[in-house]
Specification:
CATH class of the largest domain in chain C: Mainly Alpha
Strand content of chain C: under 5%
Shape of chain C: globular
Distance between the termini of chain C: 6 Å
Largest interface: B-C, 49 and 57 residues
Largest sheet of chain C: none
CATH topology of the largest domain in chain C: MetI-like fold
Helix content of chain A: 25-40%
Number of strands of chain C: 0
Strand order of the largest sheet of chain A: 18-17-19-15-20
Largest sheet of chain A: 5 strands, mixed
Structural class of chain C: mainly alpha
Radius of gyration of chain C: 24 Å
Structural class of chain A: alpha+beta
Number of helices of chain C: 14
Oligomer: heterotrimer
Shape of chain A: globular
CATH architecture of the largest domain in chain C: Orthogonal Bundle
Order of helices and strands of chain C: HHHHHHHHHHHHHH
Distance between the termini of chain A: 35 Å
Chains: A alpha+beta (588), B mainly alpha (307), C mainly alpha (316)
Number of helices of chain A: 19
CATH superfamily of the largest domain in chain C: MetI-like
Strand content of chain A: 15-25%
Number of strands of chain A: 23
Chain lengths: 588, 307, 316
């Protein structure tokens, strides 16, 4: 995929120039783990058609595009909208997304990654990946030379295969989640010598290497074995072998990273030497969006995700060509979720269907995104290959708003109109707005909804993860592949003592369809199966109704140069090679 | 006998107030206000606030919660006098409806906190002794504690929402009311007419009911102004912080918080609710000050609204 | 004086004990969640929850939990945050400087503004400076701090694309300019808002003092009016003014919490706020006791300073 292909269209509305796309990637860096909890419209990514699939273990390389000559140095300042609840990637107990993503992108290294644009396996620490059999049941991974950060007690020793294995297995023990590769597909993983890892799977898994699976920015973070053993240590600051060394933080706020001088030498000589280019990365803790905008206007942060196109236009009128702006379709997506255990009435398919019929996705997009958004099916629209055609009968029915039909469905199910259903939502701006709009839309069908706002961390750890809600609505993270968006609908096997999906919704047909897609190794056939799985989900009115993805707008100061684009949402994780021309910044 | 006492009371009052008896009632009532334009403005604002709080939802042109694509970020116009929010809600209607939230909240604090407080205050001022001591010491202790941390503690215990705010602000109003009324009752108790009444054989209950209570009533109004000012600010602050009224409830603090995201492009979005709170609280404070000045010049400026 | 101080200080642990007991019981008895479940997170097995309950001692009766917690507290072990498992003491030490600074600066601003304008108002009684100051005092008490602080961010950005700094706190000894750029504007807002009571009281007290015989005597002696006001009147007005300083401290304390929240200053106030939203019980318990401690000490200092400023006051 060359430079030309980077000129992705911004969803049919405007052509995105190369310059614009680049800025998108810059803002992607701003996202940097922010994605999860930080709440800014963060991750910018492209609409490449690829997916992570089992591919022959070649290493195709795409060095991306650089906007201006590389000048090492400079410290990038990005906004951080929420303090990380802890610096421990394992928790404590909270599904370690926020800190996991932030640290996973920065201080930890990974074996490999599948960028969404190319769909090709790309090697990081791994130097080769060999599939022993056709089914990919046994895989041999060899790793290259790398050292950990020079901090006690590891003090810059070499990264060993046993560290990698210990990291994966520790995540498996520590983080119980629903149906996942780590828990349900992975059979054994062992280090056969210092450089070699053998992975055995219970059954074939199509998305093996992707970010939802073995290439997860969180679960594949490589840590020193000895500190993994020490539970206390993990509550202190992490040590990894990634691009950045964690320098300081104020209990998760104002995190500062500095360049790791001994970052692994890249294999095959294919990478631009001297990465990372910047000397450091500073998070500036700014909770409120308007304060973040003010900070950007005054040059206190270098990049910003705007709240809307009109805001971007306003900023352009103020700052002119001092900034570069861009836009992109978000990979993250909003949804309304019902829990069938907390509210058994949702066991009734008619009621679920009626709720979906009351959702007016067009209105939501207009109100929340000022029109700059795209309706979402079970797979969000950014995953172009897997998007159902707009004239698909099931999709048309799924998206169609029909208050009259909803009412007759509710009547047929003898829905209790007198009750007031509680909808919990986090205090993230988008979540709260969606809750308000949904409350009004559901009211059109006579459904009374009471809103309950919760602190984001509490909502996430308590309400969502404990399935303690009747209704909730929120923005999903930006997933790199379609595996996770589909798996959310799976009613997992709960015999292992791990939870089912957030909705506690179990449907044999849905489960079968999702698994069939995930275990189909042939790419063409799999696309079809993913489409079919979506149809099944929609027909069953599975109680996670995706509403839309927004189009993100972002800007950066022009003194920031260089970026790799087209590599999915995981900016820095994906070795985005930007740097800051510090001298220019100081002059500006 | 009581009649005689009452006449004496009336005379005593007239003397101490130095009001020329020949002036008509209306002029007498208006004179202090005309001398205090600030108080007059305060009274006007407060009356307007109470009226809007009651009839606001009736005259609001739109449902304050209704979303409307057509009114998204609408500029001020005849259809939307204050413009529209991001979700196309009519700001004017929300401001009107927010008055009801503030008023309801103030009334809740009044009923659960202030009114019991006044009763307690009068009782402790009049009867004194250990009840008085206990109430006053607790009141002092409470006044020494910043209220926001107390609110945080209560919210941590029972969860966010206006219930927590009513409890904390209500307790504050309870002590505030009792302190104010205690002083007033104490002063009244030692007035001549009370001695006179007692000397002609009125029981304690009679005195309390017939003389003390009617005479301290104006001071109740002073306390009420201050209670409303404090309550409105507290509710708005907690809602602004996201710990008060539930999401989407039209309310000034909550609206300011949800509108601030767009405020750098459209400052009016935060100015409307902010000004609404400021003006109403200012009205209550001005009214309270003026009432106090009129009732007792010696108290002038000695106690003020406290946040 | 010393004995009085000692006697007051002996009350300190008793009051703190009471506060800690009330808060502890309130937080544990209130229906909410099992903190261990919260921490254990998604899909924790009962065994994991049991383990955490043991780790935090949540399996024991409330009374025992309280005794253990109090014992640790007395020994200087404030426990860990429920959510992050960070040592509360470390967090407290880290978060204190910005909070102390903002409270101290606001109080200084409030005291200066309150006393200065109170005196001006008294001197120009019933003339326009008096009216303006009195109106200003009412207005300052009426406009909510969070509104002004929001405007502090919005208006400069709207008009001049200037940003009131938010977030990063730099100690004043490291970079005085950056520090003051962050701290001074909110301190002005919080301080002025907290000064209203002080202003009124200064005015009232000064009016009384100015009417007194000794001031009239001083004037009659032909002393310059500045000397009269500063040396005679203000000194004698000191006692009530100090009381009002205590009240101003309370207003400023609450105001600084809001300032920290709006300006993303990650200090004690922000901690208190977010712990309330998270219902992080250990943090709330600790901060409640801490707040009570500060309030008691401030009140003691206020009482003691009476004696310093007014020789007529003797504590025994």
């Amino acid at each position: 995929m060359g430079e030309q292909n980077l000129g992705l269209r911004y969803w049919g509305r405007q052509r995105v120039t190369r310059r614009r796309v680049l800025s998108g990637a810059v803002a992607g860096g701003a996202a940097l783990g922010a994605v999860a909890l930080v709440g800014c419209k963060s991750d910018k990514k492209t609409n490449g058609g690829g997916d992570g699939t089992v591919v022959p273990p070649t290493s195709t390389v795409n060095d991306g595009y650089q906007d201006g000559p590389a000048q090492p140095g400079g410290i990038l300042r990005v906004r951080q909208a929420a303090a990380l609840p802890s610096m421990n990637v394992f928790g404590p107990g909270i599904f370690p997304l926020a800190q996991g993503l932030t640290l996973g992108f920065t201080i930890f290294d990974h074996l490999f990654y599948v960028p969404t644009d190319t769909g090709q396996l790309e090697l990081f620490l791994a130097t080769s990946v060999e599939q022993v059999d056709d089914q990919g049941l046994e895989i041999i991974v060899t790793i290259g030379d790398a050292t950990f950060h020079d901090k006690a007690p590891v003090s810059g020793r070499k990264v060993l295969a046993s560290d990698v294995v210990a990291s994966y297995l520790r995540f498996r023990d520590e983080v119980p989640i629903g149906y996942s590769w780590l828990h349900d597909v992975l059979d054994t993983m062992e280090a056969t010598d210092d450089k070699t890892i053998r992975i055995r799977q219970k059954f074939p898994w199509a998305w093996l290497y992707t970010s939802s699976n073995a290439g997860s920015p969180i679960f594949s973070s490589i840590m020193p074995e000895e500190i993994l053993q020490d539970a206390d240590f993990m509550q202190k600051d992490g040590i990894g072998s990634g691009h950045w060394v964690l320098q300081s933080h104020d209990n998760g706020a104002n995190v500062k990273f500095r360049k790791f001088q001994n970052f692994r030498t890249f294999q095959n000589g294919r990478d631009i030497a001297g990465q990372p280019y910047m000397n450091g990365l500073d998070f500036v803790f700014i909770t409120d969006d308007n304060a973040a905008l003010a900070a950007f206007l005054d040059g206190e942060v270098d990049t910003l995700g705007f709240t809307s196109k009109s805001q971007m236009d306003d900023v352009i009128s103020r700052l002119g060509d001092r900034i570069v702006t861009g836009s992109d379709l978000a990979r993250d997506y909003f949804n309304l979720m019902l829990n069938v255990k907390q509210a058994p009435m949702f066991e009734d398919e008619r009621i679920r269907r009626a709720f979906n019929k009351l959702i007016d996705r067009g209105e939501i997009i207009q109100l929340m995104e000022e029109g700059d958004g795209v309706k979402a099916a079970p797979i969000p629209p950014a995953h172009k290959r897997y998007v159902l055609p707009e004239d698909d009968a099931d999709l048309v029915d799924y998206w169609a708003t029909d208050v009259a039909e909803a009412k007759s469905l509710l009547d047929a199910a003898s829905f209790d109109y007198g009750q007031e259903i509680e909808m919990k939502h986090s205090n993230r701006v988008g979540d709260a707005e969606l809750a308000l709009v949904l409350q009004q839309q559901l009211a059109r069908g006579g459904v009374k909804v009471r809103l309950l706002q919760e602190d984001l961390v509490r909502w996430f750890s308590q309400t969502l993860n404990q399935h303690d809600f009747k209704m909730t609505c929120f923005q999903h993270l930006a997933y790199e592949d379609v595996d996770l968006p589909l798996r959310f609908y799976m009613g997992a096997d709960t015999s292992a003592g791990r939870p089912s999906n957030f909705m506690d919704f179990v449907d044999a047909d849905v489960d079968a369809a999702v698994l069939a897609a995930a275990q189909e190794l042939d790419e063409e056939a799999r696309v079809e199966k993913v489409l079919e799985a979506q149809r099944v989900i929609m027909r069953k009115a599975a109680p996670m109704f995706n509403t839309h993805s927004s189009i993100n707008f972002a800007g950066r100061y022009e003194y920031l140069k260089g970026a790799i684009t087209g590599r999915g949402s995981l900016g820095l994780f994906n070795r985005t090679t930007w740097f800051s021309d510090e001298q220019r910044r100081l002059e500006t | 006998m009581a009649t005689i006492a009452r006449e004496r009371v009336a005379m005593a009052q007239q003397e101490s107030w130095e009001l020329p008896p020949q002036r008509p009632w209306l002029a007498r009532a208006l004179r202090p206000w005309l001398e205090n334009p600030a108080g007059f403005i305060g009274l006007f604002v407060v009356i307007a606030f109470v009226v809007l709080g009651i009839i606001g939802p009736l005259i609001a042109p739109y449902d304050p919660r209704a979303i409307d694509i057509g009114a998204q970020y609408a500029s001020p116009s005849w259809e939307h006098p204050f413009g529209g929010t991001k979700l196309g809600q009519d700001i004017f209607s929300r401001i009107l409806d927010g008055a009801r939230l503030s008023l309801t909240f103030g009334i809740a604090v009044m009923i659960f906190g202030f009114i019991p407080g006044t009763v307690l205050g009068i009782a402790s001022g009049y009867f004194g002794r250990w009840v008085d001591y206990a109430i006053q010491r607790s009141g002092e202790a409470w006044a020494a504690i910043p209220q926001l941390p107390v609110l945080f503690i209560v919210i941590a215990a029972i969860g966010p929402g206006l219930k927590a705010v009513v409890i904390v602000i209500g307790i504050g109003a309870l002590f505030g009311g009792s302190r104010l009324l205690r002083v007033v009752a104490l002063v009244e108790k030692h007035k001549e007419y009370v001695f006179a009444a007692r000397s002609v054989g009125a029981t304690e209950w009679d005195i309390l009911r017939r003389y003390i209570v009617p005479n301290v009533m104006p001071f109740v109004l002073v306390g009420l102004s201050s209670v409303f000012a404090v309550a409105i600010i507290a509710e708005a602050t907690l809602s602004f912080l996201g710990l008060g009224a539930e999401t989407g409830t039209p309310g000034w603090g909550g609206d300011l918080a949800s509108n601030q995201r767009d405020a750098i492009q459209r400052p009016m979005l935060v100015l409307w609710p902010g000004l609404a709170i400021s003006i109403v609280v200012l009205g209550f404070n001005l009214l309270g000050d003026t009432l106090r000045d009129i009732l007792d010049p010696r108290l002038r400026g000695s106690t003020g609204p406290k946040k | 004086m010393l004995r009085y101080t000692m006697r007051r200080l002996t009350w300190l642990p008793i009051i703190l004990f009471g506060v800690s007991l009330i808060v502890f019981v309130m937080l544990r008895v209130a229906p909410g969640q099992n903190p261990a479940e919260t921490i254990a997170g998604q899909g924790a097995t009962p065994a994991q929850i049991d383990r955490l309950e043991k780790q935090f001692g949540l399996d024991k009766p409330i009374a025992e939990q309280y005794v253990v917690w109090l014992g640790d507290l007395v020994r200087g072990d404030f426990g860990d945050e429920f959510y992050s498992q960070k040592s509360i003491r470390d967090e407290f030490i880290r978060r204190s400087p910005p909070s102390f600074q903002i409270v101290a600066m606001s109080l200084a601003v409030g005291a200066f503004v309150g006393i200065t304008f109170g005196v001006i108002s008294a001197i120009f009684r019933n003339r326009w400076p008096d009216y303006s100051v009195r109106f200003g005092a009412v207005a300052a008490a009426s406009v909510p701090e969070f509104f002004l602080l929001t405007l502090l961010i919005v208006l400069p950005a709207y008009f001049w694309s200037y940003s009131q700094p938010v977030g990063g706190y730099v100690p004043i000894y490291e970079d005085p300019y950056e520090n003051l750029r962050l701290m001074l504007p909110p301190a002005l807002i919080v301080g002025v808002a907290g000064s209203a009571g002080l202003m009124r009281l200064t005015r009232t007290t000064m009016l009384e003092v100015l009417r007194s015989d000794y001031v009239r005597t001083a004037r009659a002696k032909g002393l310059r009016s500045r000397t009269v006001i500063v040396a005679h009147a203000l000194r004698n007005a000191g006692t009530p003014i100090i009381t009002a300083l205590g009240t101003a401290f309370i207003a400023v304390f609450s105001g600084s919490v809001i300032a920290e929240r709006v300006l993303s200053i990650d200090g004690l106030g922000f901690w208190f706020f977010s712990a309330a939203g998270l219902r992080d019980l250990t943090v709330i318990q600790f901060l409640a006791v801490y707040t009570a401690f500060v309030v008691i000490i401030v009140n003691l200092l206020v009482d003691l300073s009476y004696a310093l400023i007014d020789p007529r006051v003797r504590y025994s």
